[in-house]
Write a structure and sequence with these properties.
With 92 residues, this protein is α+β, with helices and mostly antiparallel strands. It has 2 helices and 5 strands. The radius of gyration is 12 Å and the shape is globular.
């Protein structure tokens, strides 16, 4: 069973079109379009998450429910923030 290659984070369209790959919404790892699990962090890519890491020029941004909330983050900071937001979502 393949993942849905049409389900991407906001801002991934140009990246997908130029590279033929997708970005994991949890760790920003670069993956094949048909990936169902992230080989970097193990996230199930078939389960939507309200928090996503998306490309933002040379940096990264955090999108929550499809809306960009934080811009200009280094990847490590974006990963930490996304992990915290996902944990808060789980306990809410």
């Amino acid at each position: 069973m393949l993942g849905n290659p049409n389900r991407f984070s906001p801002g991934q369209g140009a990246f997908v079109e130029t590279t033929g790959k997708r970005i994991c919404p949890s760790c920003a790892g670069v993956l094949p379009l048909d990936a169902i699990l992230c080989k970097h962090c193990g996230r199930d890519l078939t389960v939507p998450s309200p928090t996503k890491i998306v490309p933002d020029g040379a940096n990264f941004a955090i999108a929550i429910d499809g809306e960009i909330k934080l811009h200009g983050l280094e990847l490590a900071k974006a990963k930490r923030i996304a992990a915290i937001l996902d944990e808060v979502q789980k306990i809410s």
